[in-house]
UniProtKB/TrEMBL annotation:
<feature type="transmembrane region" description="Helical">
    <location>
        <begin position="171"/>
        <end position="191"/>
    </location>
</feature>
<keyword id="KW-0472">Membrane</keyword>
<protein>
    <recommendedName>
        <fullName>ABC transporter permease</fullName>
    </recommendedName>
</protein>
<feature type="transmembrane region" description="Helical">
    <location>
        <begin position="242"/>
        <end position="266"/>
    </location>
</feature>
<keyword id="KW-1133">Transmembrane helix</keyword>
<feature type="transmembrane region" description="Helical">
    <location>
        <begin position="27"/>
        <end position="47"/>
    </location>
</feature>
<feature type="transmembrane region" description="Helical">
    <location>
        <begin position="111"/>
        <end position="132"/>
    </location>
</feature>
<feature type="transmembrane region" description="Helical">
    <location>
        <begin position="67"/>
        <end position="91"/>
    </location>
</feature>
<feature type="transmembrane region" description="Helical">
    <location>
        <begin position="200"/>
        <end position="222"/>
    </location>
</feature>
<keyword id="KW-0812">Transmembrane</keyword>
Amino acid sequence: MNLQEYFNLNRFWLYLKHDLKLYKKKYLGFILSFILVLFLIDLFVIEQNLYIVKVENNYVRTFRTEIYQVVFLLTLLMSWVLVIGSSFLPLRKRSSTINYLLLPVSLLEKVLVQFIIRVVVFTCLFVFLYWIEFKLALSIIYLFEDKQSLIVPSFGVFDFFEKSLIFSHKIIIILSLFSVTSFLFAATTYFQKRPVLNTVLALGVLVLLAFVFSVVMSHVLLPDEVNGFEMKIFDRELPNKWNTIQICLSTIGVMSSLFFFPIAYFKLKEKEA
């Protein structure tokens, strides 16, 4: 087997530069729009989630760290749907699809270029932009607030994880998020028309099927303990702050990427044939 046929570093680098040059206006336009939207989201989240506490006989408004982390995760997931859902832009038109498939680049390199731009580069940008935009939104609020009456905890760039989480939990979360990106890649290669909308619908269907399956199995295994749409899940505490639910969800989250990325690759292979 000739590995150069599937991956060549020089060819990969040239194609990466070609993609960035070809879509630089679209990438730049999206980033500028994203910065504005992210600023408005952070401004709204801060303003809506300030609550009053008593500190040394004075009442001040503050902000929960958990809100910062939850909004970070939700915003990242929604951003991935848009960014990854718009991957492989030439595949949306028949004329550009032919030219795209005939490029002297392997399918693996085409997938890797999209992965690097839309997952690696975008996620790194998102982490820093989210933190910067949060600080900027906070500065705007400070202009209209008395600094003595507003106390917001200091958030570091990488404070998007709950501090109580152990290292293995963080790794599992990262791998599960990686599986989400693999699902989005598989969906965007499968749905040729309206990939973003169809991806959201497909994700919703999967969640609904998982819920229905859990309810049905709960009624089958524990008919006397559940009613209607209730579900009963066995949970056992394990060493190192783990439980059986976390083990199950982590296994599904991590292992699913082993199926979704090959689906994306072979779907492109099918189009090439």
